[in-house]
Write a structure and sequence with these properties.
It is a single chain. The chain is an alpha+beta fold. It folds into three domains: about 10-250, Jelly Rolls (Sandwich); about 255-355, Immunoglobulin-like; about 415-595, no CATH class. The chain is built from nine helices and 28 strands. Strands 2, 5, 7, 10, 11 and 15 form a six-stranded antiparallel sheet that branches. Strands 17, 19, 20, 21, 23 and 24 form a six-stranded mixed sheet that branches. Helix 7 (about 500-510) runs parallel beside helix 8 (about 540-555).
């Protein structure tokens, strides 16, 4: 569960020492400000007290200052006047754990952890974040500051948008993000503008605030030796940035882009059409909307609206129709432009598909895993269902009702593991496939699975130790009971022997598991980032594992048993640093062709 921390500390709770944290000085570039910043305005100052622990004695005329028109709330503490990012880091960088869920994704374990400075700002489309900051002159410290904006909700949802900048050093020179230079006794303090620009507030409508981690430079982290995690993490040199103030700037135009097609997937003769909603904030804005659709080959279609006048608090909607000429995947950028300046930009994707003329979808062998609402997936069958139809999928929607699956011609593809489970499934859905899966990702032991099956090496049979033998005996009993009970209660049901590692299959077949108790070998190969043509003995690879299963069946006298794939197969990943969307799509096509060939 995400730890939620307040945006700022209540003024009344700080007491009379509030002003002691600020050394008073003549105004200079820092203009003392009276009164609070309007909550409905463009600026959102963030209070840093919860993580500020460093004091340099920089003098300001007030705790409430404005620099070049940007309001800041300075640190109100007698012992600190800035947040020093030297300790900011990924706490687990040395261990690089391989746990199923990453602790990092849950945010800091304790409030105030100097390794994970975390703040919150209201959900909105922001144009930029302004900083009052300077970087240490020590070359052993970097001058990079990064912001991770979104939700740190662990397995429920971790969605982050990253921006960052290089902050000039105390005795350095201004750079491209510097808006103003403020001489102080320690050197120069800088007003820095870090652009955000990208609109993503509409993706967080169920959140009241964005989590904002302030940290050092971000790098790609790929776990070794097992590349089970591809992730972006705070890594590299410690950051030497001293942060005195931080203020987010709302875009004067808040944008929302939607369509009436689930997933923005359109079938001809439909023409892709999007509804663009604009809402004014803070000031009157004269603008226009420009939509740019880019197909796979780089061809663009550009559509612009008429000129729009948007007053604060008002909303304007426009439909944007994109006459694209090629079927397939498209990227869409919807820009709100004022003069020559881009105020905010919403990026999304869509697909334009041919007219659906499929006649045999009810015979399709294809399906997909469906969390049906968990892990922040859609929980509305009328959002999910049309995508199954358009993709030609037949299996999935496990967590939805039988009526919802029927509406979209989908069958539950998560096979039960017992006759009892099949019976319950049929009670809920008489159309459920009459199939039972003996085992699901079961194994005998780590040492047993971390080797090549004996049939491929010519070695003598693997000798189970006492603990492994006990485990095998339990599995044998379970498999016999599952097979016999299913045959008795559901004679027409199909039994697949285990979707998992070939080592377990070999152990059962060399002991002559009764052929009458299963109809096929159930194969599950994760594949992940592997090329479809990856060769044996990599049993995690799709085609290689199918070949290995076939050899084991033939070698031990089960040549008449076919191979079926079930439950979970083929996960070509597009996480950071892994496969591109294009490569993922190509891999899926090749995986499907290989699977159908068997």
């Amino acid at each position: 569960m995400t730890r939620r921390y307040p945006i700022g500390l209540p003024l009344l709770s700080i007491g009379m020492y509030l002003w002691c944290g600020v050394c008073l000085a003549a105004e200079g570039p820092f203009q003392a400000r009276k009164g609070a910043v309007a909550t409905a305005g463009l600026y959102v100052p963030v209070r840093l007290e919860s993580h500020a622990a460093d004091r340099l004695g920089v003098e300001f005329p007030s705790r409430h200052v404005t620099v070049a028109g940007v309001p800041f709330e300075l640190v109100a503490s007698p012992s600190a006047d800035n947040l020093f990012l030297k300790s900011a880091q990924w706490p687990d960088w040395q261990e690089d754990p391989s746990s199923y869920y990453a602790a990092y994704d849950r945010g800091p374990e304790l409030p105030g952890d100097p390794r994970r400075p975390l703040f919150q700002v209201p959900v909105a489309d922001y144009a930029a974040v302004y900083l009052l900051a300077a970087a240490d002159d020590d070359p052993a410290l970097s001058n990079t500051i990064s912001f991770r904006i979104g939700a740190f909700d662990g397995p429920r949802r971790t969605t982050l948008h990253d921006v960052g900048a290089e902050v000039p050093r105390w005795n350095g020179k201004r750079n491209a993000v510097t808006q103003a230079v403020c001489p102080v006794a320690q050197g120069n303090l800088y007003l820095v503008r870090v652009p955000i620009g990208k609109a993503f507030a509409q993706d967080f409508t169920d959140e009241w605030a964005f989590d904002v981690e302030v940290t050092k430079q971000l790098r790609l982290a790929i776990r070794r030796p097992d590349p089970c995690r591809y992730q972006i993490r705070p890594l590299g040199l410690p950051s030497g940035v001293h942060l005195f103030g931080m203020t987010f700037l709302r875009s004067p135009v808040q944008v929302r882009v939607s369509s009436d097609q689930a997933g923005h997937v359109f079938n001809a003769p439909q023409t892709p059409t999007f509804r663009v909603q604009l809402r004014g904030v803070g000031r009157k804005t004269a603008c226009m909307v420009e939509a740019v659709a880019t197909d796979f080959y780089g061809q663009q279609q550009v559509v612009r609206t008429d000129d729009l006048a948007l007053a604060p608090g008002t909303t304007i909607e426009r439909d944007v129709t994109l006459p694209v000429t090629r079927y397939g995947y498209h990227e869409l950028s919807v820009r709100v432009i004022a003069g020559r300046s881009e105020l905010v930009r919403r990026e999304t994707t869509f697909a334009w598909l041919p007219k659906d003329t499929r006649r045999h979808r009810d015979e399709s062998p294809l399906g997909t895993w469906d969390f049906s609402g968990t892990h922040y997936t859609p929980n509305d069958p009328d959002v999910v269902g049309p995508l199954y139809v358009k993709a030609g999928l037949r299996y999935g929607m496990f967590g939805f009702s039988a009526e919802a699956r029927q509406k979209y011609g989908v069958l539950a593809g998560n096979e039960p593991r017992s006759a009892e489970g099949l019976g319950k499934a049929l009670e809920k859905d008489p159309l459920a496939p009459r199939r039972v899966l003996i085992f699901h990702e079961h194994a005998i032991s780590g040492p047993h699975i971390l080797r090549t099956p004996d049939v491929f090496t010519g070695r003598s049979a693997y000798q189970l130790d006492a603990k492994e033998q006990e485990r095998f005996d339990q599995l044998w009993k379970e498999a016999i009971e599952t097979g016999q009970t299913t045959r008795q209660q559901f004679p027409d049901a199909k039994l697949a022997f285990g979707n998992g590692n070939p080592h377990l299959l070999e152990e059962f077949l060399r002991r002559k598991f009764p052929a009458e108790l299963f109809d096929s070998r159930g194969n599950e190969a994760g594949s992940f980032m592997r090329m479809p043509e990856t060769q044996p003995p990599d049993f995690v690879a799709n085609n290689a594992s199918l070949w290995m299963d076939r050899q084991i069946l033939d070698h031990y006298g089960y040549a008449d048993k076919p191979i079926t794939q079930c439950y979970e197969i083929c996960y070509p990943n597009t996480n950071p640093g892994n496969l591109s969307l294009q490569t993922q799509a190509a891999y899926y096509v090749r995986h499907i062709l290989h699977s159908l060939a068997w």
